[in-house]
Amino acid sequence: MHLQAQLRPVPKQHSQAPFQPAWWLRHAHLQTVFAKYLSPKHLINTEVEIFSLPDGDELQLNWLHAKNATDTTPLLLLLHGLAGDINSHYIQAMLAQSQILDWNAVMLHFRGCNGKPNKLPRAYHSGDTADVALVIKEIKRRYPTRPLVAIGYSLGGNVLLKYCGEQAYANPLAAAIAVCPPLSLSACAKRINTGSSKLYQRYLLDRLKRSTLLKLQQFTDFPLPLTAEKVLGFASIEQFDEHYTAPIHGFLNAQDYYQKASAKAYLKHIEIPTLIIHAQDDPFLSDDVIPAAAELNDNIHYELTTGGGHVGFVYGSPLKPRFWLNQRIPAFIKQQFNL
User: Fold this and answer.
1) How do residues 87-126 score in pLDDT, each as one tens digit?
2) Contacts of 274 (CB under 8 A, 6+ apart)
3) Within a 13 Å sphere around the CA of 286, how many CA atoms are in the beta-carbon half?
4) Helices (DSSP H) in the chain: which residue ranges?
5) Within the chain, how many helices (H) and strands (E) appear?
């Protein structure tokens, strides 16, 4: 297979040149790891808002206000991946692009992802659309005429696509973009627990363990039969989901959670312009995340590249690396609004 974008057979095609990975970063792991370290470090000032939730918990929103925004200026809602935050390289990159384009943007931290434990024993998960729905509703109340575009990365992409499918014709978003979403969670849990992908699992699992240990200290009457020793003994994301994520959020077990939270079954119900980007060599995802043409509809523009890793997509020379998402995402948005 050629190292260029392989487009699924969907009606809408794009005119953007296909992504080709940098010759010196052809391997998926290099794309995945080096994207974080090669991405320019941006000093972007955002305004912090603590957003209260009906159950007594709260979210942190980070706002980037454009100086010359008008009623027709796109407003971007950014959703991070598992264990991500405002400092994630892909979030910083999109905020920087928004600043260059003079677009408004707001980044949503899922519960407990802003560096402080959230107020409840529960956290967030890959299918948790309720909090996103509340934030979107509030943004539209404040800015009713602004075209609101949501961009989700990895876990955030799955949440976004599930939300869009649930909303169907009632979707208040003007467009949606999902980068490397794990559309089949069970398959992804197995994929990240195999071979060299276990390195990423270890990194993510360590962060999840730390946040859960803090919760055990925070709540003396924790509602699950967990101990610090048991948490530290989790050897996979699936074990963590089986004993914490699933039961704390009302699922029977990990497989019940994966089946109900995976966004793949919701894609055909999406009724707004939507871009989905996957890399075929993504070390986090298996082939099961790739939707068949019958699982899509005319509103979805699906792009599958052979290279790019997980939220990597680095091209250019070693002296001047470039990041394809920084061009592809704004290009899609501009196309929707004739900007």
Assistant:
1) 999 999 999 999 999 999 999 999 999 999 999 999 999 9
2) 161, 164, 175, 176, 177, 178, 299, 300, 301
3) 13
4) 28-38, 89-101, 130-142, 155-167, 185-191, 198-218, 228-232, 237-240, 246-248, 254-261, 324-337
5) 11, 11
The Cα angle at residue 322 between residues 288 and 33, in degrees rounded to 5: 50
Please state, in angstroms and rounded to a whole number, the distance separating the CA atoms of residues 21 and 12: 24
d(CA 80, CA 86) in angstroms, rounded, equals: 8
| Run of H or E residues at 302 | strand 300-305
Query: Structure tokens of 246?
Result: 């699933």
Q: Are 78 and 106 in contact (CB under 8 A)?
A: yes
Q: What is the CA radius of gyration of the chain?
A: 19
Which pTM does this prediction carry?
0.93
Separation between Cα atoms, residue 178 and residue 165, nearest integer Å: 13
pLDDT of residue 5: 36
State the first-to-last Cα distance of the chain, in angstroms, to the nearest integer. 35
DSSP secondary structure string for all residues of 166-234: HHGGG---SEEEEES--SSHHHHHHHTTSGGGHHHHHHHHHHHHHHHHHHHHH-TT-SS---HHHHHT-
What's the rounded Cα separation, in Å, for the pair 267 and 295? 6
The predicted model gives 319-330 an average pLDDT of: 94
* Measured CA distances, 305 to 179, 267, 287, 309 (Å): 12, 19, 13, 9
Active-site positions? 154, 282, 310
Distance of CA 57 to the CA centre of its chain: 21
Alpha-carbon torsion angle 166, 252, 193, 287, nearest 10: -40
Distance from C-alpha of 310 to C-alpha of 305, rounded to nearest angstrom: 11
CA separation (Å) from 197 to 211, 225, 262?
22, 29, 20
**CB count, 10 Å around CB of 47?**
10
Tell me how far apart the alpha carbons of residues 73 and 102 are, in angstroms, rounded to a whole number.
8
Q: What is the pLDDT of residue 38?
A: 86
Mean pLDDT for all residues in the chain: 92
Residues in the chain: 339
User: Element (H or E) spanning 316, and its range?
Assistant: strand 314-316
